[in-house]
Every structure is written in C-alpha cells, then in structure tokens.
Write a structure and sequence with these properties.
about 375 residues, alpha/beta, Rossmann fold, 2 domains, 11 strands, about 40% helix, globular
Length: about 375
C-alpha cells in the first residue's frame, strides 16, 4: 500500500471515528423526554387548538404511574412550540411531570368581552385540563397541577391561576405584563377589550394587579421572576407590593444578569427563568407526594431579592468583611420585614427558609452560562 493510500485510509478512519463520536455525544445529550403534538377540540372557540405535550422518559417506561402536570402559556408572537427547548425538556424529565403547551395566538389568554370566539381562559380551564386528564395518565388534583408563562403568558397564567385556585396549586409568572392598564396603546389588547378610554373599568378588571386584590391568603403558591431592565419591571413590582400588603405567600425575584439581554425582556431570559420555575414546581410536587398535599413547611410569607450578578455568584461564599455575601445579611423575622443593605442592593425577607428558594433561583439564573 502506498503512503498516499495509507494516509487516505487513516484520514477516512479518523473521520469515521469523529463522526461516530459526534453522533454518540449528540444522542447522549438529548433529553429522554418526548414530545407529542395534538389537536384539542374546543367548543368554546369552535375550533381545535394545536397543543404540545412534553412527556418525561418514565411516562413510557412505567405505565402504572400517574404524573403531575404543568401548563405553560407562551408570550405574544410565540406558539405551542416555544418551550420545546432542550433545557426545558430536561427540566420536565428531571421533574417527572408532564408539560402542556397550547397555542394561544395573541389573545392574552383571556375571554374577550367583545369577540365571541376568543375564549382562551375558558378553553384552558374547562376544556384543556379535562382533555389532558382524560387522555394522559395525570394526577387530577389541584395540588399536582400548576400553570406558568412568560410575558403575555405571564399575565395569562397569573390571572387564570388566581381566578381558578380550585384547579391550580401554584403559578409561575415570568416577566409578565401583569398590569395591562399600563399598556393601553397595544393593538392586540385594544382588539380584545376595546379602547381603554371607553372601557377603563374593563381594562382594570382584566389586570392581574386587580385580581391579586381578590386573592385569599394560602389560596395558591406564587412565584415571580423579572429582569432589572425589563419594561414590565414596575408592574411586577406593584404586583409584589400588593401580594406583600395582603400577606399572600409568594417568592419574587429580580435578576440582573451578566449581560443586558439576560436582564431585560428576552426569550433567553424567559427560558432560563422557566427552568428555575419548573425546578420549584418539581419540589412542590415531591413535597406534596410526601406530605399528602399539605402546604410545604416554610412557605409562610413573602420574600424578595434585588441582586447583582456578582452578588448572586457569591451567595454561598461569606467574605471576610461580609460585603457581597448576602447570606450574612439575612435576618429571620416573625411579622415585620427588615431591609438589610449590601452596597446599592438589598434583600427583603420575613422568612429565611422562603428566601432560600428565591436566592437559589437568582443564583442559578445568573450563573448559568449563555447558550
């Protein structure tokens, strides 16, 4: 065999090995979760709604087991495929629950008072939940059913969850537009509700900040994450203030990421935040299995964090002078709250065990490398 032929053969073998290795690595990196796309019939809207269902790997391997369900509502301009990301599939697989993602168009997940065929809320609570419980092996209890979403979906998930605490045990709000009264020039909202100048009461009634004032303590678990440069930041802060004043248990986290994109209204921020919300849901499901659906210990009052990326990276490190290590500034309180400053940032808490969850979410969000 000539040297050229031998070299050519070696190169071919090397390429084959590299290709085989690449295929093997890719196969191993894919989550064991699977996706089904289904059409769910809706009498309320006289149509079928395209819906994605993410199933954990053990759904197929253990045919006797029933699973909790997370309903995910996408933002404006997205669809039922929005959350079909590898990181989200892995979160579902690790959490051992189903994730259901319906297509909501740009209807803000509401029942329009002026458009008879726009019945997104009715579809979710009366048709979708029933369809999923009938066609999949779910645990049909509110304690094992949660709802979350980002942007438009954050508003939708929050309002639906608050209005239907008999169906959902927890809500995840990610960069949600929770006070639509602040966005009266949006054409999609005007299409659904009419001009705000003529329908001010209607716009107020459809805002999450209004619904929160009707929420009863202990009715539902509420988790909220928003970036420090998000254009919905102020409305999320207002929602946090309302829940705090009404002594509604919740976790509220503001995140300053390592880049501007990871601090403002972006899909990348939403994906990262959703991973953390899903992890919190998985913890709740696990606790409820053990505790027989009782409220987990330690969720007794509201907590909030406003943290820089550097501070979040130092959560588990107590420096010599204590600056930057917010763990050192946490104080356990009974009824009132205390503001403990750390440079220009602060941590507000009235229960150390609750704030642990918020700190974990914030630290993981900031520490995750960009994809």
């Amino acid at each position: 065999m000539s040297n050229d032929t031998r070299k050519s053969s070696q190169v071919t073998n090397l390429l084959f090995i590299l290709v085989s290795f690449s295929i093997t690595v890719s196969a191993c990196s894919i989550s064991g979760a699977t996706v089904q796309e289904i059409d769910v019939p809706s009498k309320a809207m006289a149509c079928t709604v395209r819906t994605a269902v993410i199933l954990p790997m053990d759904y197929a391997s253990d045919e006797q087991t029933r699973f909790p369900v997370v309903y995910l509502l996408h933002g404006a301009g997205n669809d039922h495929t929005t959350y079909l990301q590898p990181s989200i599939l892995k979160s579902v697989d690790r959490g051992h629950f189903l994730a259901v993602i319906p297509d909501g168009g740009t209807d803000w997940w509401m029942d329009s008072p002026i458009l008879p065929t726009v019945r997104r809320e009715t579809f979710v609570v009366q048709e979708l939940v029933s369809y999923v419980d009938t066609h999949f092996r779910t645990i049909p209890q509110k304690e094992m059913r949660t709802i979350a979403g980002h942007s438009m979906g954050g508003q939708g998930a929050s309002r639906i969850g608050m209005r239907h605490t008999d169906l959902f045990g927890a809500v995840g709000n990610i960069i949600g537009g929770v006070d639509i009264q602040s966005y009266t020039n949006r054409r999609d909202l005007i299409r659904l509700l009419g001009p705000s100048s003529e329908n001010a009461e209607r716009w107020r009634d459809y805002s999450v900040t209004t619904e929160a004032k009707r929420l009863q303590p202990s009715a539902i678990h509420f988790f909220s994450i928003v970036g420090t440069d998000d254009f919905f930041l102020e409305s999320n802060r207002e929602l946090h203030r309302i829940l705090t004043n009404r002594k509604i248990a919740h976790e509220y986290t503001e995140v300053r990421g390592e880049t501007d994109e990871l601090s403002r209204h972006s899909r990348l921020f939403a994906y990262r935040a959703l991973e953390r919300i899903l992890a919190r849901f998985a913890e709740l499901f696990a606790l409820r299995r053990v505790q027989g659906s009782k409220r987990p210990e330690g969720v007794g009052c509201s907590g909030a964090t406003t943290l820089s990326h550097a501070e979040m990276q130092r959560f588990t490190k107590v420096t010599e002078n204590g600056r930057g290590a917010l763990v050192a500034t946490v104080r356990r309180q009974s009824n009132d709250t205390r503001h403990e400053s750390c440079d220009t940032h602060h941590l507000v808490t009235c229960h150390s065990s609750l704030v642990t969850g918020a700190k974990r979410i914030a630290s993981q969000l900031a520490a995750t490398p960009p994809r």
